[in-house]
Amino acid sequence: MTEIGFVDVAISLSLVAVAFVVSRFWKVPVQKEMSLGVVRAFVQLVAVGYALEKIFAIDQIWLIALVMLVMLAVGAREASVRTKKLSGAFWLAFSSMTTGSVLTLAIMLATGLFELKAVIIIPLIGMLVSNSMNAATHTINRLYENLTDNRLAVETALALGKNWREASQRFRRQAATAGMVSIFNFMKTVGIVALPGAMTGMILAGKDPLEAALFQLIIGYMLLSAVTLTVVMVLELTVRRFFTPHDQFRPPVRL
Amino acid sequence: MTEGHTTLSLSHLTRAITANGTRRVLVDDISYSFACGTVYSVVGPSGAGKSSLLRLINRLDEPDSGEVRYNDRDYRELSPQELRRHIGYLFQTPYLFPGTVSENLRFAEASLTDSQIAGLLDQVGLEPGVASADVDTLSGGEKQRIAMARLLATQPSVILLDEPTSSLDPTSTRGIEKLIKRIAEERCLVAIMVTHEPEQAVRLGGETLLLVKGRLVEHGPSEQVLNDPQSDEGRRYKGMELS
Ligand SMILES: Nc1ncnc2c1ncn2[C@@H]1O[C@H](COP(=O)(O)OP(=O)(O)OP(=O)(O)O)[C@@H](O)[C@H]1O
Ligand SMILES: [Mg+2]
Hints:
The complex is a heterodimer. Chain A is mainly α. Chain A has helices at 6-25, 31-58, 61-80, 89-110, 118-149, 151-159, 164-167, 169-189, 197-204, 209-240. Chain B has helices spanning 50-57, 80-86, 101-108, 114-123, 140-153, 170-186, 198-204, 222-227, 232-242, and strands at 7-19, 22-35, 39-43, 65-70, 73-74, 87-90, 158-162, 190-194, 207-212, 215-221. The N and C termini of chain B lie far apart (47 Å). The relative contact order of chain B is 0.18. The chains are: A mainly alpha, B alpha/beta. The interface between A and B is medium-sized, with 16 and 21 residues. The complex binds adenosine-5'-triphosphate and magnesium ion.
């Protein structure tokens, strides 16, 4: 595999055609979704491919920052969309995800692990932001549900003279676990159940498997750091919204 | 601070909420002074604001205006944590944390010894063996009594009890009533207890406060407020309870 072109993509479509015919024959009603998925993936990936080509050619810091900002904004929207009742959820997710991914990225750059080049940094940013988004989504949702569903438990602890931090501890811990479960699972099964994307890509591109594995390890640690920072921030920012300065429980409701 | 003699007073305590654009006054300009050693019963129709009033007194909720004075000081001078350990609150539906009974008691007061736990359980009429029981295995009445024991664990000087005998049988109810009367007298506590049973208020003696729509419409010796009310609202409440 050297130069890949649209012709190769057309050839790979023959696989889809087989799947299409088979599913149709056995009356599995997925043809509509399949066609939609094929077109959608094509448009999105080709667009991204062209955009990245341009971005890599320009290779300017401001452009990298802009791309990161857009990714963070889209990710934060996705993370906050389910907790409609929590006012300011977008900013909460946005600032947490930004902290988690920017801080991690800054450390990677400062230690010289990665060069500040668009072609290297942008795929990293993609992984950082999507993992932070995933973590933020689950943490916010779980904490919001936990606290609103357990008002009596929280207030009982407050009434016994506990502060808001103690009264919410159990629920913060559960929310943190919910936010980090996918990165933990990833680290548990990595290399055994599946080779992760970055590593697969490197091996396909002809790199030495050990080198690919070490690279993947660095990525894994980087994601763990970003996810942890994001989760901690989300918890801190969210839980405070549920309490007044006098340790009174007052769930935030968007009116 | 006067040593040993707890005082508690409310002045013009008011709390309103705005829901769906309409303002509702839950606690309406209530002023009252409580003395230690007496049991105060709070009665009134459902939704009168009895629970809301208790929540204000231990500052689980913030009044819009008015003041609570505890031992002749504005209660805001104490940290909420400290205040709530002095002014204990038993919820209308008691909640126990997952775990054992002794874990629940130690959550309130970490330094409790096994014999202190046995003592607290004994006060609420439970065997010492209950200490190691998982709370999921307890009956509703047992849970209510554990919550009561947990409340006493912090040695509060004011106890706010929201229908503490609602899920108890008559024998346990009498036991808790005696306990409340006894500790109020012996330790000179201010005991404020919400009840929907006028007979219970009469049995407890002390004073009764009648709340209607957030207002304190009548107060005085329990016997009088409940059997021979002076106000129109008091007579209406008595009629309601009889029918
Ligand atoms: N946070 C809140 N939001 C909206 N309404 C509330 C809130 N808290 C209390 N209320 C309302 O305030 C009113 C007074 O409630 P409260 O629980 O104090 O009454 P109560 O006298 O204790 O009644 P009950 O005898 O049924 O326990 C009720 O109508 C209740 O629905
Ligand atoms: Mg009530």
